[in-house]
Amino acid sequence: MRILIVTTRPETFTAFAATLGEKGLETAFAPTGQAALDLARTTPPTLCVVDEQLPDTDPFALVAKLMSQNALIHTAVVSGLSAEEFHEAGEGLGILTALAQNPGPEAAASLAATLKAVAG
């Protein structure tokens, strides 16, 4: 399974991506929402992790665009919103989970287990 991490802060996701790799998941990075859409069009990931601070789009808008492009792509969003605010912002988008602003190995292990449960 392939994970696309959309962020301008790849160094923040080093341990996160390494743990995903240890769990047998391939990772790739995209620096913008448009780059993620382009990559998803040519090589759809199983999951797209969307950082909250992108230079060209809001993370929830990107999730909506990804869903309209390919509804089989699972998504997770890095967010500092409260659970209630996150639910309100992402309602109807089918986001798999919210991640803390600086997700580490524990978040990656949990996400990998969740993804394997839903995507096989």
Describe this protein's structure:
The protein has 120 residues and is of the alpha/beta class. It contains five helices and five strands. Helix 1 packs across helix 5 (105-119) and helix 2 runs parallel beside helix 3 (59-69). The radius of gyration is 13 Å and the shape is globular.
What is this entry, summarized?
The protein is of the alpha/beta class.
Describe the secondary structure blueprint for this structure.
Blueprint: E1 2-6, H1 14-22, E2 26-30, H2 33-42, E3 47-50, H3 59-69, E4 74-78, H4 83-90, E5 97-99, H5 105-119
Parallel strand pairs: 1-2, 1-3, 3-4, 4-5
Helix pairs in contact: 1-5, 2-3
Structural key phrases:
alpha/beta; 44% helix; 5-stranded parallel sheet; 120 residues
- Helical coverage, percent range: 40-55%
Radius of gyration: 13 Å
- Helix and strand run: EHEHEHEHEH
Would you tell me the structural class of the helices and strands?
Answer: alpha/beta
Strand tally: 5
What's the end-to-end separation, in Å? 9 Å
- Identify the strand order in the major beta sheet: 2-1-3-4-5
Query: How many strands, which pairing sense, and closed or not: the largest β-sheet?
Result: 5 strands, parallel
Shape verdict: globular
Mean pLDDT: 96
Q: Hey, roughly how much beta strand do the residues contain?
A: 15-25%
Oligomer: single chain
Number of helices: 5
Low-confidence stretches: none
